[in-house]
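queue> holo job accepted (flavin mononucleotide)
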Amino acid sequence: MNTQPVADRFVFKTADALRRKAEAVGVALPFDEDVRILLEETAVGDRRVPNRIAAQPMEGCDSTPDGAPTDLTIRRYERFGAGGAGLIWFEATSVAADGRANARQLFITPVTGPGFRSLVEVTREAARQRFGRKHTPFCVLQLTHSGRFSSTAPAGQRRVACHNPHFGREALPEWTDDQLDGIVGAFVAAARVAARAGFDAVDIKACHGYLVHELLGAHTRANSRYGGPFEHRTRLLLDIVSAVRAEVPEIAVAVRLNATDGVPFPYGFGMSADGSASIDLEQPARLVRLLRDAGCVLLNVTAGNPINRPHINRPYDRPVAGSAPSPEHPLIGVVRLLGLAASMQAEVPSVPVVATGLSWLRQFWPPVAAGLLKAGGAQLAGLGRGMFAYPDAPADLAARGSLDPVKCCIACSRCTELMRMGSTAGCAVRDHPLYSSLHRSAEEAAESPS
Ligand SMILES: Cc1cc2nc3c(=O)[nH]c(=O)nc-3n(C[C@H](O)[C@H](O)[C@H](O)COP(=O)(O)O)c2cc1C
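queue> job finished
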């Protein structure tokens, strides 16, 4: 049982109480009681999006061994479709057999492609059944190579972009430039299958420490076309975006980007070069302009990484079992994430930005998101853990203008624990008995002597 201390329990019964706390911790929480903007139709590229609420990519770790979706994967997306989210950002899906974060991570190939096609069809059909033929969620598939976190790489073949003590202390070999050149083709091939499967867009994942993101902070990678100066560190991401645009023009390109890593220079992206841990958005701002110019039509702004900067990545009350309590009030993390989205949206007003980090706010996320969107700080509001817990939140918001507090995510980290314990991820609190019993079994397995 996780008996970790809770940093600052969520005790707010009213939005006013929450806003007073924000003031007390010194952050400016956007807020607008009129939440109708979230339910407005919008567009990505030339496609309609039925509302401005997005389900964020959330790995369920429940694929078949070859990477195809299973019944559990389909159940998750069917719930998102039936819940009314206007945009559904499908979870991290590997482009390479040896680049999966775990052997249960989705992997898209011509062989698994038909499974993805059914997944998209079931998701869209669930949405249409409940909201009518006109409600077709925009579907994005997140493509990734897990880089240093690839647990499916054969023994001795896991590689890193460069040594980074904040991402791990193991002495692993570096990718050669030639090997990195070859990664572009893997993303293009995956995008081609994704287009056939019916996705509207693919996301070239550039966040949370995985390969494409790792390179963005590869300041210390020497004598390489992929390390050192900004133009080198951003090369792989921009090359992949351009190659997918050129070779698979029928699918739109999105990027989920870390605007800052929270680890000091020379190991992080979006960090001040004076070595302090302060944020510097000059390079992320340059990068999003280049991404727009390369044809990226949708951005999703995030930060930190789930292993050693979880408070930056996903503000929580209760940490993952065995890890540290949040070093800051979660509201600081929420407002930081929303501010990063706003900074990137200001750079590229023509490219819709999905904001991240709203789930900790429970039933108060809609007025906060409405305040952010009305101020132009993003064009869509993304919910990660909140969607695992409460996939019907968009439908409830449309029907009654507010959310049911007893269905909301409580930022307890159990979904992350499920992943870490080698199980399949979901909400162990709100989606019971399925995930509560999986969580219990995973805890028992972890505690039993082997
Ligand atoms: C169990 C779990 C799985 C996740 N899987 C992914 C993923 O596949 N891709 C990704 O970019 N982020 C992933 N994330 C991060 C979320 O998309 C999101 O950025 C984070 O939870 C913060 O948003 P929230 O406050 O709305 O939960 C995951 C988070 C959790 C807790």
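queue> DSSP finds 15 helices and eleven strands in the chain.
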